[in-house]
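Lab meeting minutes (informal)
Scribe: AK
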Amino acid sequence: MSAEIERYIQAGTRENTRRSYKSAIEHFEAQWGGFLPATSESVVRYLVAYADTLSQNTLRLRLAALAQWHVSQGFPDPTKAPMVKQVMKGIRTLHPQQARQAEPLQLVSLAKCVGWLEQQAAQAREHGQTGRMLKCLRDRALVLIGFWRAFRSDELCRLSIDHIQARRGEGMQLFLPWSKGDRENTGTTYKAPALERLCPVEAYLDWITVAGLATGPVFRGIDRWGRMGETALHPYSVAPILRDALAGAGVDSEHYSSHSLRRGFANWANRSGWDQKTLMSYVGWKDASSALRYVDAQTRFIL
């Protein structure tokens, strides 16, 4: 296979997926001691070995990685064997797992969080603490855009100034070349409103103006000396940023994650009278089950 062909094949598989699959294959070979190409019997033994220690989502990811490796190398896929499917069914029966969901961020907690960040930014500016001020302005923009656009953490971290148009008092458009629901990588343009308070547009423009950013990633790392990096934040850093800001504002942040922004918006929209179709269109969900997973049971849509 030529290097050029390999480059396009790699581009057709998302970086997070490639990284997860690579880790899964290494786990199968190095940690468990399996051999590739694998047989369906060895796959079954592997599943049984970790049935009570790994989540079912992780096991499904491991199977997908093994399937992809075999298909890409021209070998029969051992994960399609009936015995493998039957064992996975047995694991679901013997090791039932309750789906874990992040606590939805309520509007009152969002307001406390943003208010604390604004207060900290003002104090930092007054004391000449540039790095601290920049972090507060960045985090305010991150939280507000994440909430009002119901973005996932990886979508927030892939936002580029080159693909955003924003006007104070009017709104903003944010283009993402690809997202989880955009399997064909055609790109999606999202809109966010200009608001009287808790405004994502104001927060975004304040951040890039003070930071002096004109191109590249919107959200970047800032070191202890206040120096800003050139690369985007890692998606795993979004949850700690949110929890730290909530804790600073006096909100118990233990049960919050980056998905709290997405769940928080979905619940706010539902309580504000949005119907299911409107919410699905705004967020980008393709099926109703996705919307229902994000909305609390006691506040489900009234049909």
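Next up, CB showed the second protein from the same session:
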Amino acid sequence: MTVFRQDWNRLLCNGCYGRLLSLHDIRAGATDDSELADRLAEELLALVSEEELRKAVQLLRTRISGFDQLTERSQRLLATSEFVARHLANATGLDWSAAVVGMCKAVEVELVERLVAPLAAECRGLDLDEDAQDKDLERVARFCIGRSRTPPELGTIRHCLQTASYSRSRRDTSSLLRALRRTMSRWPDSPWLLQPDGALAVLEQVTTQYRNRAVHTDELQQADFDACFDLVLGDRGLMWELVRATEPR
């Protein structure tokens, strides 16, 4: 028999206890934040059956206008996070980190699909050797030229956009950043991606206030999940700004 926080009125079944242990072991492991987020997101998806996930996706489609504009994997992550959150809301004092990680991972997936993948297509055939050695651009550059099969993670994409926004010298000398400008030129509302009070500010919030805290052993609460949900999927949420900023002419 297992109890939660030494409260004998709050018993945990063996399955719940095992899941909590696995999540704790992942978060306590010695690895970087992006790998932790990936592993936690996979654990999150494993919590929900395909039938439960199908219903959760359908519920969000009904509740949120434009939900179908998002990629299938983003929809699955968001719906799973919402499903887990609904069950967590029936308990008190439980850690909401896994649900928050799913929201943040969905943002990363959408960024890769809508921004990094078109950038990689624009970079095809280019010489990005210098960019692949630039500490601020290397991970994005290596993915764009096929030297890495792992897409850049949330913080890396934000850092690349930050460099494109603030570094005037590299905007002129970097083949990767010139390709980024060409890619963005096809999207009328793309300036938001490089605005300090636009994508840069919101992505920093998602990364530092939610993703990074969720992958470590600090406990997150329902208020954290609700605030992250609003930031990502609210009426003026990050996802809808990203969709608008990457729409072609």
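CB comment: Residues 2-245 form one domain.
No objections, moving on.
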